[in-house]
Design goal:
Length: about 170
């Protein structure tokens, strides 16, 4: 009798947990966003033929369709820019923060058409994956020497990690 009661309690408890918790399926989402920012350039090496700078950019990003998780996000990007034989290449990292203060992080490789990959995030963006391409839209003369200002359009996909969520709140 006692074994039957224990078995009943265990089965009942398991069923309660099964119905109280569900897996939120991660779906891949396409995005189309714009970003504009201003950066300072710091010379690292200005040798003949090769110029290297570090950059620190701050700006804002918004979604073109109004559906992206970063609908209105601030951004901070840092990296290194190399100019070799007139060809510019760059690698860097960006942090985007949405209106709730949650962040996602990207690794970027920049040339004429940049590529980026999501490498992590906090809160709801923890475990984010995906990436895309970005193309610079503006090439204006810098307002202050040692800076640059630009806007870019990025397209691609992102996917949030599957998470366990309780139906009860």
């Amino acid at each position: 009798m006692r074994k039957s009661c224990i078995l009943f309690v265990l089965v009942s408890f398991s069923l309660v947990l099964f119905f109280a918790v569900h897996i939120v399926k991660a779906e891949e989402v396409q995005f189309d966003r714009f970003a504009c920012g201003s950066a300072t350039l710091t010379p690292v090496s200005l040798e003949k033929g090769v110029k290297t700078f570090s950059f620190d950019m701050k700006g804002i990003s918004w979604d073109n369709k109004g559906e992206d998780f970063a609908g209105a996000a601030t951004m901070h990007c840092v990296g290194v820019l190399k100019i070799l034989g007139g060809e510019k290449t760059s690698n860097g990292y960006c942090k985007f923060m949405d209106s709730e203060g949650t962040r996602d992080y990207e690794y970027t490789k920049i040339n004429d058409e940049s590529t980026f990959t999501y490498i992590g995030g906090t809160g709801k963006y923890e475990g984010i994956t995906g990436g895309g391409k970005s193309k610079t839209l503006t090439k204006a003369k810098p307002i202050v020497k040692g800076t640059f200002q630009s806007c870019a359009r990025g397209t691609g996909t992102w996917k949030l990690a599957e998470k366990m969520k309780s139906k009860e709140k």
